[in-house]
What does this fold into?
Amino acid sequence: MKLNELKPQPGSAKTKKRVGRGIGSGKGKTSGVGVKGQKSRSGVAIKGFEGGQMPMYRRLPKRGFNNIFAKAYSEVNVGRIQQAVDAGKLDAKAPVDAAALVASGVITKLGKDGVRLLGNGELKAKVEVTVAGASKGAVAAVEKAGGKVHIEERKADSGKAGASKA
It folds into this structure.
Protein backbone atom coordinates (compact mmCIF):
# COMPACT_ATOMS: atom_id res chain seq x y z
CA MET A 1 0.00 0.00 0.00
CA LYS A 2 1.28 3.44 -0.96
CA LEU A 3 0.30 6.84 0.43
CA ASN A 4 -1.25 7.86 -2.89
CA GLU A 5 -3.49 4.77 -2.78
CA LEU A 6 -5.10 5.66 0.58
CA LYS A 7 -8.81 6.43 0.49
CA PRO A 8 -11.66 6.27 3.00
CA GLN A 9 -13.94 3.25 3.36
CA PRO A 10 -16.85 3.33 0.88
CA GLY A 11 -19.79 5.24 2.40
CA SER A 12 -17.80 6.66 5.33
CA ALA A 13 -17.08 10.09 3.83
CA LYS A 14 -19.88 12.22 2.37
CA THR A 15 -19.03 14.98 -0.08
CA LYS A 16 -20.21 18.42 1.01
CA LYS A 17 -23.01 19.90 -1.08
CA ARG A 18 -21.66 23.04 -2.82
CA VAL A 19 -24.41 25.63 -3.04
CA GLY A 20 -24.47 28.98 -4.79
CA ARG A 21 -22.09 27.98 -7.59
CA GLY A 22 -24.18 28.78 -10.67
CA ILE A 23 -27.56 27.68 -12.01
CA GLY A 24 -26.08 24.66 -13.76
CA SER A 25 -25.30 23.03 -10.42
CA GLY A 26 -28.96 22.79 -9.44
CA LYS A 27 -28.25 24.63 -6.19
CA GLY A 28 -27.28 28.00 -7.59
CA LYS A 29 -28.59 31.55 -7.10
CA THR A 30 -30.75 31.15 -3.94
CA SER A 31 -28.99 27.94 -2.81
CA GLY A 32 -32.22 25.99 -2.35
CA VAL A 33 -33.86 28.32 0.21
CA GLY A 34 -36.35 30.01 -2.12
CA VAL A 35 -36.86 33.74 -2.53
CA LYS A 36 -37.21 36.47 0.12
CA GLY A 37 -39.13 36.07 3.37
CA GLN A 38 -38.16 35.11 6.90
CA LYS A 39 -37.19 31.51 6.07
CA SER A 40 -34.70 32.58 3.43
CA ARG A 41 -32.73 34.66 5.94
CA SER A 42 -29.93 33.23 8.06
CA GLY A 43 -30.38 32.53 11.76
CA VAL A 44 -34.14 31.91 11.58
CA ALA A 45 -35.86 28.79 12.84
CA ILE A 46 -39.62 28.59 13.26
CA LYS A 47 -39.81 25.57 15.54
CA GLY A 48 -43.25 24.38 16.54
CA PHE A 49 -45.05 26.83 14.21
CA GLU A 50 -47.89 25.09 12.37
CA GLY A 51 -49.16 27.85 10.12
CA GLY A 52 -51.50 29.48 12.63
CA GLN A 53 -53.08 26.20 13.70
CA MET A 54 -52.91 25.54 17.47
CA PRO A 55 -49.49 23.84 17.82
CA MET A 56 -49.17 20.28 19.08
CA TYR A 57 -47.34 21.26 22.26
CA ARG A 58 -50.28 23.51 23.24
CA ARG A 59 -52.97 20.98 22.28
CA LEU A 60 -51.62 18.29 24.62
CA PRO A 61 -52.52 18.42 28.32
CA LYS A 62 -49.91 19.16 30.97
CA ARG A 63 -48.96 16.22 33.20
CA GLY A 64 -47.07 15.84 36.47
CA PHE A 65 -45.03 18.30 38.49
CA ASN A 66 -41.52 18.86 39.84
CA ASN A 67 -41.24 18.30 43.57
CA ILE A 68 -39.11 21.17 44.86
CA PHE A 69 -38.57 19.35 48.17
CA ALA A 70 -37.25 16.12 46.57
CA LYS A 71 -33.90 14.91 47.90
CA ALA A 72 -31.02 14.38 45.47
CA TYR A 73 -29.12 11.35 46.79
CA SER A 74 -26.34 9.30 45.22
CA GLU A 75 -27.67 5.76 45.50
CA VAL A 76 -25.44 2.81 46.39
CA ASN A 77 -26.52 -0.81 46.74
CA VAL A 78 -24.97 -3.09 49.36
CA GLY A 79 -23.98 -5.48 46.56
CA ARG A 80 -21.86 -2.73 44.99
CA ILE A 81 -20.07 -2.15 48.32
CA GLN A 82 -19.33 -5.90 48.50
CA GLN A 83 -17.87 -5.77 44.97
CA ALA A 84 -15.57 -2.90 45.98
CA VAL A 85 -14.45 -4.78 49.11
CA ASP A 86 -13.75 -7.93 47.04
CA ALA A 87 -11.76 -5.89 44.49
CA GLY A 88 -9.70 -4.32 47.29
CA LYS A 89 -10.89 -0.80 46.53
CA LEU A 90 -12.67 -0.44 49.89
CA ASP A 91 -11.19 -1.42 53.25
CA ALA A 92 -13.84 -3.36 55.23
CA LYS A 93 -12.15 -2.48 58.54
CA ALA A 94 -12.15 1.29 57.90
CA PRO A 95 -15.41 3.22 58.22
CA VAL A 96 -17.21 3.59 54.90
CA ASP A 97 -18.57 7.09 54.28
CA ALA A 98 -19.32 9.28 51.25
CA ALA A 99 -15.68 10.34 50.86
CA ALA A 100 -14.47 6.72 50.92
CA LEU A 101 -17.09 5.71 48.33
CA VAL A 102 -16.00 8.51 45.97
CA ALA A 103 -12.29 7.73 46.49
CA SER A 104 -12.85 4.03 45.72
CA GLY A 105 -14.87 4.79 42.58
CA VAL A 106 -18.11 3.21 43.85
CA ILE A 107 -19.88 6.52 43.13
CA THR A 108 -18.59 9.10 40.70
CA LYS A 109 -20.52 12.16 41.80
CA LEU A 110 -21.76 12.94 45.28
CA GLY A 111 -25.45 13.91 45.40
CA LYS A 112 -26.48 17.27 46.84
CA ASP A 113 -28.06 15.55 49.86
CA GLY A 114 -25.44 12.82 50.34
CA VAL A 115 -25.50 9.05 49.85
CA ARG A 116 -28.46 6.71 50.31
CA LEU A 117 -27.80 3.02 50.90
CA LEU A 118 -30.13 0.56 49.17
CA GLY A 119 -30.56 -3.15 49.86
CA ASN A 120 -30.05 -4.71 46.42
CA GLY A 121 -27.38 -7.43 46.38
CA GLU A 122 -25.66 -9.44 49.10
CA LEU A 123 -23.16 -8.25 51.70
CA LYS A 124 -20.72 -10.62 53.41
CA ALA A 125 -18.14 -8.14 54.71
CA LYS A 126 -18.51 -6.64 58.19
CA VAL A 127 -18.55 -2.91 57.41
CA GLU A 128 -19.44 0.23 59.33
CA VAL A 129 -21.30 2.57 56.98
CA THR A 130 -22.08 6.27 57.52
CA VAL A 131 -24.66 7.60 55.04
CA ALA A 132 -27.33 10.29 54.78
CA GLY A 133 -30.10 7.71 54.38
CA ALA A 134 -30.67 3.96 54.17
CA SER A 135 -33.56 1.65 53.32
CA LYS A 136 -34.79 -0.90 55.87
CA GLY A 137 -33.53 -3.73 53.67
CA ALA A 138 -30.07 -2.19 53.45
CA VAL A 139 -29.84 -1.74 57.23
CA ALA A 140 -30.96 -5.35 57.71
CA ALA A 141 -28.36 -6.62 55.19
CA VAL A 142 -25.49 -4.71 56.84
CA GLU A 143 -26.49 -5.80 60.36
CA LYS A 144 -26.90 -9.42 59.20
CA ALA A 145 -23.28 -9.33 58.00
CA GLY A 146 -22.23 -8.00 61.43
CA GLY A 147 -21.80 -4.34 60.50
CA LYS A 148 -23.49 -1.10 61.51
CA VAL A 149 -25.26 1.71 59.67
CA HIS A 150 -24.97 5.27 61.00
CA ILE A 151 -27.41 7.84 59.59
CA GLU A 152 -25.97 11.37 59.41
CA GLU A 153 -28.03 14.13 61.02
CA ARG A 154 -29.16 16.73 58.48
CA LYS A 155 -28.48 20.33 59.38
CA ALA A 156 -31.70 22.36 59.68
CA ASP A 157 -31.77 24.87 56.82
CA SER A 158 -32.87 28.35 57.87
CA GLY A 159 -35.47 29.97 55.65
CA LYS A 160 -37.11 26.68 54.64
CA ALA A 161 -40.78 26.00 55.32
CA GLY A 162 -41.27 24.80 58.87
CA ALA A 163 -38.01 26.30 60.20
CA SER A 164 -38.44 28.25 63.41
CA LYS A 165 -38.06 32.02 63.23
CA ALA A 166 -36.93 32.48 66.83
